[in-house]
Design brief:
The chain is mainly α. The protein folds into two domains: 58 residues, Orthogonal Bundle (Arc Repressor Mutant, subunit A), CATH 1.10.10.60; 150 residues, Tetracycline Repressor, domain 2. Helix content is 69%, strand content 2%. The protein has nine helices and two strands, in the order αααααααααββ. A two-stranded antiparallel sheet has the order 1-2. The longest helix is centred in the middle third of the chain and has 31 residues. The radius of gyration is 19 Å and the shape is elongated.
């Protein structure tokens, strides 16, 4: 699957009157697409408004500045990611293997694992000024995710009699997920979401062979 950002397209004319939340969402989605196409440093409000089909005055009305728009877009992506994994975890039930399976698959949910979103995340990761903002506003979310995966790994290790450190196993799984995301953005012939998911499941199978295969948890 080609994960290169799509070239800009001319937006359809937007209705003159739309709910405030709808316009705000349009601008954030347009910012994500602009980051994917142009990168952090070259992003302009003019390109964002063109993609959104709105006036630049509306950007200023909703976000005050380019920096505020970028910050709110980063926070939006972070909250979208948090909701994605917490909802997947809640739907998995109490079984530890089912919970880990759900969390790993959640990272490849087609709603969040898209070319534009991956490219936007890469833009933010590569921009030093965005990191303190993210840590201040979203660091607790990452800690919650990490502690959750570590606790699930500890339960699986106890169930299967596996040796090792659950904190390190959880870190390996997380780094594998992030590595496949980076592969999909940077490789000349990138593999697709399903292959990325299978790669991560292979890592889980190596850590928990009684509970996982490269296809996912053993039912």
């Amino acid at each position: 699957m080609d994960l290169a950002p799509e070239p800009p397209a001319e937006p359809a004319a937007a209705p003159r009157k739309q709910p405030r939340d709808t316009r705000r969402q349009q601008l954030i989605e347009a910012t994500i697409a602009t980051l994917a196409h142009s990168g952090y440093a070259r992003m302009t409000l003019a390109e964002v408004t063109r993609r959104a089909g709105l006036s630049q005055g509306l950007v200023n009305f909703h976000f005050d500045s380019k920096e505020r728009l970028l910050t709110e877009t980063l926070l939006y992506l972070a909250e979208e990611y948090r909701l994605n994994w917490t909802q997947a975890l809640a739907a998995a039930g109490p079984d530890a293997a089912a919970q880990l399976d759900a969390l790993l698959r959640a990272d490849f949910n087609s709603a969040i694992c898209t070319p534009d979103r991956l490219a936007a995340w890469c833009s933010f990761w590569g921009e030093a000024q965005s990191r303190p903002i993210y840590q201040e506003r979203c660091g607790a979310n990452d800690e919650s995710y990490n502690r959750t995966v570590e606790a699930i790994c500890a339960r699986l290790m106890a169930e299967g009699g596996y040796s090792g450190d659950p904190v390190r196993v959880a870190r390996v799984l997380r780094n594998t997920v992030e590595g496949t995301w980076l592969d999909m953005m940077t490789m000349t012939e990138a593999y697709d979401r399903l292959e990325a998911e299978a790669t991560v499941m292979t890592c889980a199978a190596m850590a928990f062979p009684q509970h996982f295969t490269p296809k996912g948890r053993i039912i």
